Amino acid sequence: MPFPIKTCVICHEEFELRPDKPGFANRCPSCSEPEQAAEPEPRRSTDYAERRAEFEVNAARRRAMRDLLYRKDS
Description:
The chain is mostly helical and 74 residues long. It is built from two helices and two strands. A hairpin with a 6-residue loop joins strand 1 (5-7) and strand 2 (14-16). The longest helix has 23 residues, at 48-70. It is elongated.
């Protein structure tokens, strides 16, 4: 079964769209390479104090939202 022939939107070159082709379906393999080369940003490690502070800020935010949403207007 032949693969469909597509035209690259960047370089306007025709290529076969294969199931294992990396990148976008409307770009040829050579134009899709720069996206594959980009490495994800490494996560920075957090120590206990930073995690605890973030937890407390989030808890205060949740409490404030809860109070605003469910307070009784008398």
